């Protein structure tokens, strides 16, 4: 009892060296065991060694097992005096002598030593063991189990541990006991022995503690203590699965129902640890099953070898346990607003397990579990986009999965992948607050990680055969847009639109429309949160930019009867929501900014649809919608634009070439201006100067005069010149009049000139009686530009003069006639002749 640890180490190291030379000597084992049986609670440390000499309790089951293997090996290292305590030297001597004795004398020495060791353990002795004592107890029994009669040693170990009172055993002692059990299980696995006898009691204890963990909510200390035990079990099971080559030794017994109670009680790091464990188990199970299918031999040759059918039964049992205990929780978590990323990783692993062992899946996934899993985690538009994108990243390039989906007749799976990718990008900002706030570091890190995830998903989507074909037919070259998911969406939309425009036959077009609608999914449902919350700004801008691009590039698709319901919903939700139609309400600034930036795309696309709609009634309705959109936003953005040239409607007009849809947009805009912004109702229209400046800019930029400009716009401009004396209005109206007259001169065919004469003639008839001076002044301006035009109007002017005098009933109106003659004096010979007629006529 008085021997120092450093002396014991020195003596026992010498004995260990000599045991290799000496014959079998059981006496030395008996004598040394007599000492240690009384001192198992001793840590056997050397104080002046410092930290190196301290006993290490926090070992994993695998490290304990590896340590035991080293005790039973013949390998000695120079630093053993420092790395091993005296009790560990004893264990090495025990292993060395028992191996030598077994070869020479059979089982008799083993039974003799085993009896002496067993006799020292009884209920009182077991209850006296401290944590260090328990560790030494396990080391001893694990060495015995490694040497011979493993099942007998394990049975004796379990009997002795049952002497311990659950109430008097500390949490750390229980954790150590569980580690010891797992170290025994690893010993069994190394010897290809069935682990059921050890796994079942350990699994039952785990179930009990998992239930306590679930119901313990407010006692944080108790929860931490329970987690120490439960994490020990989780880590131990993982080491068992990673150590077992073929998973054919009843490993399924460790996958107890306790996991179904553990998961709901986990939070944060605890949940991440369990899900990481599940991924490791899934990987090992699939690997073992693949090896089995490849026909590899199982286990070591000999009496313990098993047929492949038995191994397969074990694999099926493990898989069923995984589905039973883990899948319900994962299924419930998929709807969480921000699920941990491991949920997606684990769901992907289970999907691949369903591919390998479909019969093991739960009944709610049958009869096609792969499709059911894809619908739950990859194609359901209610699932968090971050989960979906991470989940699909694991699976898109899996050729076996692609073959399985195709074999099941689910040929549209690539389109659904694209749909999910589309949604994930649209909903990039879905969980951000609507207000413009400074993002925290955590939020910025999370957003950056998600963008990297989307970039990877985009790369994989663009490798799908269906997507490759679309880009190939559109003749789009490889570009860096793949590195920017949002830019990639725009290019994809453009490629689909170009593909459709090049199709010639109706059946092909019909198929393409159907496929395009699948790509989009319920796009307005995806962006509804942005519209309801009126933010965040990034989400609204992304929404309007993508759908605006869609309206322009897919205009021909949206013009079809299949796609028109979507078109009407887009207009109702994005361009003409209820708030726009109410006079006392105004859209939030962030939404107006998003609309303003992308309105040109919407207008150009809608104009195309109006021109190519087959149904007359639908065409009338679409034209009305186009008018409503222009009417609502022309006035709203007049004040927001510092210059008329920045107005989105003006940008839409200028961005169109001389196509039927461009003419349609121009015509509708002119109609809206004339009917809604240039109408005199007692007073001059509000913001008249801004409206005229916009109109002039539009005419100058479009560089072409249409008949609607003369027919619809010119009467309103003439009215402004007649009734408004404000200098800016006069100037702008005169410039518009000048532009229209000059445009009619350059336009071949004479149709515009004819219409121009008709409008001016009606103007003369309507205003000469009251506003004769203004009428003649305006016509003088016209005469400067096109004298022949006004000459054609001489009969109408003269008739209007006479009608005016007749209505006044006062005979000749000298002042009016003088004003008229001044105008005629500028009209060459025709004017002079009309002056003579007026002077010579009798009244």
UniProtKB/TrEMBL annotation:
Pfam families for this protein: MMS22L_C (PF14911), MMS22L_N (PF14910)
GO cellular component: nuclear replication fork
The keyword NADP appears for this protein: no
Protein location: Chromosome; Nucleus
Keywords annotated in UniProt: Chromatin regulator, Chromosome, DNA damage, DNA repair, Nucleus
InterPro entries (alphabetical): MMS22-like (IPR042320), MMS22L_C (IPR029424), MMS22L_N (IPR029425)
GO biological process, one term: chromatin organization
Chain ranges of the Protein MMS22-like N-terminal domain: 2-335
Main location: nucleus
Keyword Translocase: no
Residue ranges occupied by any MMS22-like C-terminal domain in the UniProt entry: 452-827
Family: Belongs to the MMS22 family. MMS22L subfamily.
Function: Component of the MMS22L-TONSL complex, a complex that promotes homologous recombination-mediated repair of double-strand breaks (DSBs) at stalled or collapsed replication forks. The MMS22L-TONSL complex is required to maintain genome integrity during DNA replication. It mediates the assembly of RAD51 filaments on single-stranded DNA (ssDNA): the MMS22L-TONSL complex is recruited to DSBs following histone replacement by histone chaperones and eviction of the replication protein A complex (RPA/RP-A) from DSBs.
Protein's name according to its UniProt entry: Protein MMS22-like
Native species: Thamnophis sirtalis
